[in-house]
Amino acid sequence: MIEEKIMKLIFITCAVASALALTGCNDNKSAAPVEKLNKQTVASSADTETQSQEDISALYTRATQVIFQQRALEATMFGLSSEDVGMEFNDQLADFSPSNEAKLRQQLAILSNRISTYNLKQGTSTDIDNQQVMAGITQYFAGHKEFSIGYIDAWMGLSPFIVNQINGPLIDIPRIMQNDQPITTEQEALNYITRLGKFDQLIASIEEKLAFDTAQNWLPPKSTVTGAIRYLKGFTSAEPNTHVFVTNFTEKLDKISSLSKQQKQQLTEQVIDKVAKVVYPAYQSMTKATEQLLTKARSEAGVWAQPNGEVYYQEAIRQLGDSLLTADEIHQVGLDEVSRISKEMNIILSREGYKEGTVGARMIGLTDEERFLYEDSKAGRAQLLSDLNGYIDEITEKMAPVFKTKPSYQVEVRSFPIEIQDGAPGGQYSPPAVDGSKPGVYWINLRDMKDNPTFSLKTLTYHEANPGHHWQASLNMDQASLPFLRRIAPYNAYAEGWALYSEKVASELGLYKDDPFGDLGRLQAELFRAVRLVVDTGMHHKRWTREQAISYMSEQTGSAESGVVAEIERYITWPGQALGYKLGMLKILSLREHAKAELGDKFDLSAFHDVVLLGGAVPMAVLDRNVNHWIQKQLSLN
């Protein structure tokens, strides 16, 4: 009954919130003047009645170009062409200066307004979805009119702290260059070297943006700054000739058979020179600026302590949680879900002979048992990665009856690079290149082997790979008829809600049959997401301290302390992002139950999954409409 009430509440509020999120315009008067848009791309309001379908497609193309001309590394990550972006970009970096950031936001706000007010005559349901979702995406990237702080991230929209321990250009740009920038020709090698030579300009723009934000009294919490300093110092700790920028480059260069040994040596020397004379000095300057920031950093963990922070958090709830629930209401949903899931875990623990202590204490005890731990060694880590690949193969085969459409892109398992693992989450997914030249990557954090007990890894794999993030993101990428921004749409509640829903689907498919501890790991993972509702709202609204949040999460979930600390510091840095998992899952489950009730024997789970997935990531109001349209169509067939 409690879960039913929660689903009903989430169902209503998410729908309303998403509908509101599809409109609006950033009218930030402090933004820099926007460049005059091409007449072919954006028609004037006087021409609205004569606009053709081609015109709105041009708006969609322009939106893609505006974003990726300013985020060249992300264009490389997605495997875009110069034609897609409207310029040559593979040797470019980004400019995060306050004036350029304001210009980007204003351009996107204008485009969002023009898309949302476009007179779409006799459009199909796909045309209507395209217009609404594209208006929403461009507004998402335009940020909130009251906040010129932070920067626009190609995944989470307005990210509040440009310097932090888990994401941002200082972390993301090097990682993309290492993992996603192809070096298969001499020209591509030269592009890489050119980018390295521009790190001084990149870092200078980040320092300028940091100073701009600080001047507005927007000061990150101490844990965020401390984590950033740890990363920055680690990034330049090696000798330049052994830095990952060099070793990664030489590994790729060795595979280019058309280059002579002398050419490769000359190119490598150029890379070492750029790392030593440009990259290292730039990062060392950034380290000094961040150390100075530490003296001003806030002791409070929550965004409420920032100027107008409560407004920021409610906006984060709307955007990242896709909800109009208040923080207090979400906090209560979390508490109720923690209670429900803990009771289910207690049943399994008691059945297996673990009867003493709280659920969290008993789970902590399990992680001390050798039978559930991989060896803390190179061999142990290799075995863990091998097992993850086996879990992917197993579930992909068992999924077939309830998933009609299979994505064309492959997925690969990798461990996080050592230099970023301390601030990274337990698992993460990055998408494939659109041309298939690079697979989707399921990242696993191996900093603490105790944080990866065997009973937890099936569930993490189903979440990050199949049928979770990889399956959803790859099917989205496969929809070539959609505007490109729709193919990579970063709707947090949809994407994370789907990945958490996938864990439940795995259970329903029998992946935990005769595996009570694996099922316990699944429930612990779901409990983790319910706890997120409590600690995120606790810190950012109820003014909990970092230590209160760590204590609550540790006691309730029984997760390793190293993982809990990293998680809490992640929520501190990303207000509201952690809400999308449980809120999104509850919405998808409520839609499934609604479809079952309406269709009865006509309900087909594989068809339902196609409806949810093949329309791409969307706001929950659009998903709600699409599912109900499908229900009515099925009812009309007989």
Keywords:
mainly alpha, 638 residues, two-stranded antiparallel ribbon, 3-stranded mixed beta sheet
Question: Would you kindly provide a written description of the structure presented here, covering whatever features stand out?
Answer:
51% of the residues are buried. The protein is mostly helical and 638 residues long. A hairpin with a 3-residue loop joins strand 1 and strand 2. Helices cover 61% and strands 3% of the residues. The N terminus is likely disordered. The protein is built from 26 helices and five strands. The protein is globular.
Please report the total strand number as a whole number. 5
Q: Helicity level, as a percent range? A: 55-70%
Shape: globular
> Major beta sheet, specifics?
3 strands, mixed
Distance between the termini: 33 Å
Number of helical stretches of at least 4 residues: 26
Mean pLDDT across all amino acids: 91
Unreliable sequence segments: 1-52
Structural class, from secondary structure content? mainly alpha
Binned strand content: under 5%
Radius of gyration: 24 Å
Widest β-sheet, arrangement of strands: 3-5-4
